[in-house]
Design brief:
Elements: H1 10-39, H2 44-61, H3 63-72, H4 75-99, H5 102-131, H6 136-165, H7 175-181, H8 183-199, H9 217-221, H10 224-235, H11 237-260, H12 278-297, H13 306-321, H14 327-355, H15 361-388, H16 393-414, H17 416-429, E1 432-437, E2 447-452, H18 459-466, E3 471-476, H19 477-480, H20 483-491, E4 495-497, H21 503-514, E5 518-521, H22 539-544, E6 549-557, H23 569-575, E7 581-587, H24 597-616, H25 622-633, E8 637-641, E9 648-649, H26 650-667, E10 672-676, H27 681-692, E11 696-699, H28 706-716, E12 720-723, H29 725-733, H30 739-742, E13 746-749, H31 750-754, H32 760-770, H33 773-780, E14 789-794, E15 796-797, E16 804-808, H34 809-823, E17 831-833, H35 840-853, E18 857-859, H36 866-876, E19 880-883, H37 885-893, E20 907-910, H38 917-927, E21 931-936, E22 943-946, E23 951-953, E24 958-960, E25 970-971, E26 975-980, E27 994-1000, E28 1006-1007, H39 1011-1017, E29 1018-1021, E30 1024-1035, E31 1041-1046, E32 1051-1052
Parallel strand pairs: 1-7, 2-5, 2-6, 3-4, 3-5, 8-18, 10-11, 10-12, 12-13, 17-18, 17-19, 19-20, 20-21
Antiparallel strand pairs: 6-7, 8-9, 14-16, 15-32, 16-28, 21-22, 22-25, 23-24, 26-27, 27-30, 29-30, 30-31
Length: about 1050
């Protein structure tokens, strides 16, 4: 469950509400016990009703003042004033008890109920302000459970107090005698009220109130205010239905208690003075349990499907209640009645709070209280009248059951979507974990047009589960007219639409928006075939134009890779290994109905950042993710070297990683570990071993001069270097002398270590096979926070010395997922990796991404030897080549690289620098392979965007554009671009050139020990951290980015 006590000030509010309820029920119990002891069972029903009247009437009489005070002033101020009055009143009650003054105690009881009538709307209004819409039902469930617990506690505590204090009182006695005996109970009430008052000062102020409101006593005295406030309820259908439902439930509950009152003395098991409270105690416990269940089911959205379910539970309980007489059966049924009631009332409270306009919330809550308490007075009153004319308690229970059944049927008829929605939510809950972001952005009333991405066949169900309001979906007519779906789709008011014949459907959308309904359109027009956003059609603009309402954009994350999406089978296996799929629905800020498709798509891209940020909180850090991936691959092909190496299986690669991690833990007391290795299996395993040992790898750029390298070492605090003597010798033969740097470091030869024999590699291999991943990680490593620094990559600046870019585990894992999603990996995929590991492109894209996602990878340490690269591709049948423009240009120019050598490639991606048109054309002519250009920076881990192949839908032959020549593609899922004026940072429209900002979960933590440079390049807009790239470019209408040059500041990653 979402951690509810992380909601600021919720715990103090719950304690305040608990104490308030204990005081109310405690006073009621003490008075009822006095009446019962003095006058006996003969007046049980009438005295119970009379005392209840004292508590219920103020909620009706003070409807207007209570609502006004809650809206006019800060809700905390209202609660503090109410608590102060309760403290004063309980002091007076204690004195009235001490003096034996029954009349005064009754008057003070009425006044105590008056403060409760004022306290209640302020309490629930403040609860909405604290929790927001996203956690509203969760908070309401906890509040209802707390109130029910307070009621049960108040009854039990003050029953015990009464029995203890009045134990030695013998008849004959009067009410005044008993009051004097139980006077200490009054002081206990005063103590509880005092503690409640003090705790109200721990509440956090959220709203100052609407001070422009004025209260007119003339209008109140003439009942004009009453009708005005009551008239607010039917103005919103959902609020009205919710109020009717709540009123009916509480009225029936009072009616049941009234019906059972004459039966209580006749039941031997209930023969004690506590007998009238047995039903209240058991149903109160059930109500608390039901409220907690409702909070659990609605922890991430308002689960309206609980309403009809709870209503049916109430009916079935009442149906059986009249047939049993044993105390155990009655206790169980009252427990079940309370449980059903909790499921019923919690979502209804939430719906009232959600749909009520902010400035009217207090008055609407007060009006709701008034109607509820009116029925709580009326139904017991009618029940007493029927009993007085001879109707038996059993017949009265039957009558109440009929009323409850009528209410339940009305609920199901009025809210058919809610029950279906609940069933769907429960079905999906076994395989999907649905989370809602930005529910506060969804208006509680008025026309709303929901527009977002279309990723799977389940999108409509997920959006409806996330939205507390009924939604009319626009659906392709071909699907709508299927006979086995049509009746079901009609429950949801689906609007059928056909290509080329959309006028009638769009007119229907306009009409629904004018009527204040919610409509959902997927503007792409079809399910995505690549996981990326497709073209946003403009038909919605015609439907929304001139209507009264707003557009609310949304983004769905988590369904790409499900069996209901159009991803590859391999992607489904990759994303399906978890027991439950994380699905996130993010709602954005409301937009005008005239919003253009280009702006809408940009907002959806921005929303993807929120959704992915939430998703990455559930991701594991790199080392544990690697251990799990290796164990999933098992004996399958994992990594290999193009020259002289045999493929490592997942188990063997993991065993070698664990062996190296023990070495690193022993050799490196410092946090950072320097790595000087080429793109190779030992190179990537050295990085993985560093992560498993809990340290941060720093891959050194061996092409830089010794002075620059030494500066890197000093800045990163590196004292130990993991390398290979063979590699260092090879570098020296190529003219790269690292001796000036190495003499200050402890050098560890990792290659030699792995070539040793002995028993250790065998034990490690067995552990890799048989020990569970989590336990294995605990043995060899330790817990790593997702926000912890994972890698430091130094950039080759053209205007300053290299800066160390600090990337977190979240950065790496999110970019890995983003890249894998758009690649839509296949079962036959093999990645060709020839980029150096000191390059962000080489480390993340061709190094980590394949091993974490379980894609076989071939390493080649010398990317400049394009003949060897081509041979490796042909030998290993590699399918994905990610390279720099320099590598691709060399391949195209190399006469020894025959076109057939690259025949196995399905995807060639260029990054790390601008791709010249000549290189692209020459490569495509020679190898008949299209190059898909991407874009990013070291500071973005590095990939921010990429072109991908177009996809076609054979059902309607619609093409989803994945790439545009001359652009660097659309942002990856979870990323967004913003083109701004370089000086003012004001956003520019599509087609307008400006400074490129990149936002996303892959944006770096910052520069190593350089906060000034970090502040210089980072900017926050709309709650998103954006990286100033220093590049200039523009976005087209579909969101594809074209680079046009550089701004004043340049920071890039060197590649050789």
């Amino acid at each position: 469950m979402t951690k509810p006590l992380r909601i600021p000030a919720l715990l103090p509010l719950l304690i305040v509400a608990l104490l308030n309820t204990i005081v109310d029920l405690g006073q009621r119990v003490l008075l009822q016990c006095v009446f019962l002891r003095v006058y006996g069972d003969s007046i049980l029903s009438s005295q119970t009703l009379a005392i209840n009247l004292l508590f219920l009437i103020p909620f009706v009489l003070l409807l207007s003042p209570a609502g006004f005070l809650s809206d006019r002033y800060s809700k905390i101020s209202v609660m503090q004033a109410s608590a102060a009055s309760a403290m004063v009143l309980t002091l007076a009650i204690a004195l009235a008890y001490h003096w034996g003054w029954l009349g005064g105690a009754l008057v003070l009881t009425f006044l105590l109920a008056t403060q409760s009538a004022i306290f209640s709307p302020a309490k629930f209004g403040y609860l909405r302000e604290l929790s927001g819409s996203e956690r509203l039902t969760l908070a309401n469930g906890l509040m209802q459970a707390t109130t029910a617990t307070g009621a049960v506690s108040g009854i039990l505590i003050f029953l015990l107090v009464f029995q203890y204090l009045a134990a030695n009182t013998t008849p004959p006695y009067t009410a005044a005698d008993l009051l004097r005996e139980i006077a200490p109970g009054g002081w206990l009430l005063f103590a509880c009220a005092t503690l409640e008052f003090l705790l109200t000062f721990t509440l956090k102020t959220t709203d100052r109130g609407h001070h422009e409101l004025r209260f007119r006593w003339r209008r109140y005295c003439t009942a004009n205010y009453v009708w005005e406030n009551l008239g607010r309820l039917p103005a919103n259908r959902v609020i009205w239905l919710s109020v009717v439902g709540l009123s009916l439930f509480w009225g029936l509950a009072q009616g049941v208690l009234t019906a059972l009152a004459p039966m209580v003395p006749e039941t031997q098991s209930w023969g004690s003075p506590a007998s009238p409270y047995g039903p209240v105690i058991w149903s109160g416990m059930g109500l608390a349990a039901g409220s907690l269940l409702a909070a659990y089911f609605s922890r991430k959205h308002i689960e309206t499907g609980l309403v009809p379910l709870g209503a049916l539970g109430v009916v079935l309980t009442l149906l059986v209640l009249s047939q049993v007489t044993s105390a155990q059966s009655l206790a169980f049924l009252f427990l079940l009645l309370g449980l059903s009631g909790g499921l019923f009332v919690v979502p209804l409270h939430s719906l009232i709070q959600f749909h009520a306009p902010g400035g009217q919330l207090g008055r609407i809550l007060a009006a709701s209280n008034a109607v509820q308490h009116l029925l709580m007075l009326s139904i017991p009153g009618v029940a007493l009248l029927l009993i007085s004319i001879g109707l038996s308690s059993t017949d009265l229970l039957h009558l109440l059951t009929v009323v409850a059944l009528a209410g339940a049927l009305y609920t199901v008829i009025q809210l058919p979507q809610s029950l279906v929605r609940f069933v769907l939510a429960r079905l999906f809950s076994t395989t999907h974990r649905i989370q809602v972001l930005g529910l506060d952005n969804l208006p509680g009333q008025g026309g709303v047009l929901l527009l977002g991405n279309h990723i799977s066949w389940l999108d409509w169900a997920i959006v409806q589960i996330a939205c507390p309001r009924p939604i009319h979906f626009v659906m392709h007519r071909g699907l709508y007219e299927l006979w086995y779906l049509k009746w079901f789709l009609d429950l949801f008011g689906v609007i059928p639409i056909a290509s080329g014949r959309s006028r009638a459907a769009l007119a229907m959308v306009s009409n629904l928006l004018e009527r204040g309904e919610v409509v959902c359109i997927f503007p792409e027009g079809s399910i995505s075939r690549s996981g990326q956003l497709g073209e946003f059609k403009t038909g919605y603009q015609r439907a929304a134009a001139g209507t009264k309402g707003v557009i609310v954009p949304f983004y769905l994350r988590g369904l790409w890779g499900s069996r209901f999406s159009r991803s590859s089978e391999r992607m489904r296996q990759l994303r399906g290994h978890r027991l439950r799929r994380d699905v996130i629905v993010a709602f954005g800020n409301p937009l005008p109905t005239g919003t253009q498709a280009t702006e809408l798509k940009r907002r959806v891209f921005d929303l993807s950042i929120d959704a992915w940020h939430q998703h990455t909180q559930t991701l594991e850090a790199v080392p544990l993710a690697w251990i799990r991936a290796a164990k999933r691959q098992g004996t399958g092909y994992c990594i290999t070297d193009s020259v002289g190496g045999k493929p490592d299986s997942g188990y063997r690669a993991l065993a070698r990683t664990l062996t190296l991690s023990r070495l690193i833990s022993r050799e490196s007391p410092e946090q950072t570990a320097g790595i000087l290795l080429p793109a190779s299996s030992i190179g990537i395993l050295a990085n993985l071993a560093t992560w498993v040992s809990g340290k941060t790898p720093v891959n050194l750029n061996y092409t830089w001069d010794p002075e620059t390298l030494q500066d890197m070492l000093d800045k990163a605090g590196i004292r130990t270097l993991y390398s290979s003597k063979e590699f260092i010798t090879r570098l020296k033969s190529q003219g790269v002398d690292l001796e000036p740097v190495l003499k200050h470091l402890k050098l560890v030869d990792m290659q030699a270590l792995l070539e040793r024999g002995g028993i250790t590699p065998i034990i490690t291999l067995l552990a890799s096979i048989f020990v569970p991943a989590r336990l294995l990680y605990g043995w060899f490593g330790g817990p790593v926070d997702i926000e912890q620094a994972a890698a430091i990559i130094f950039t080759a600046g053209t205007e300053a010395r290299p800066k160390g870019v600090v990337l977190s585990h979240r950065n790496l894992m999110s970019n890995i997922r983003q890249i894998s999603d758009v690649l839509d990996t296949r079962e036959s995929d093999i990645v060709m990796a020839s980029l150096p590991l000191f390059h962000a492109y080489g480390l993340t894209v061709t190094g980590l991404m394949p091993v974490i996602e379980g894609i076989p990878v071939v390493f080649h340490g010398n990317g400049s030897d394009t003949t060897a690269v081509a041979k490796a591709i042909a030998r290993q049948r590699a399918t994905i080549l990610c390279g720099t423009p320099a590598l691709l240009d060399s391949l195209a120019a190399n006469p020894r690289a025959h076109p057939l050598m690259l025949d196995s490639l399905r995807l060639v991606v260029s990054g790390g620098g601008p791709l010249a048109p000549e290189t692209r054309d020459t490569f495509e002519r020679k190898f008949n392979k299209k190059i898909y250009e991407g874009y990013g920076m070291t500071e973005t881990t590095p990939v921010a965007s990429a072109n991908i192949p177009d996809r076609i839908d054979p059902r309607d032959w619609q093409v989803q554009t994945g790439g545009k020549t001359g652009t660097v593609g659309m942002p990856l899922p979870g990323s967004s671009f913003r083109i701004v004026d370089p000086e003012t940072l004001v956003s520019l429209p599509p087609g307008k050139e400006g400074l490129i900002l990149i936002g996303g979960t892959q944006v770096m933590l910052g520069y190593l020990r350089d906060p000034d440079s970090t502040r210089e390049v980072m900017v926050e807009q709309d709650g998103i951290r954006w990286y100033r790239t220093g590049d200039r470019g523009y976005l087209d209408g579909d969101g594809f980015l074209t680079l046009t040059g550089r701004c004043h500041r340049v920071t890039k990653t060197a590649v050789r």
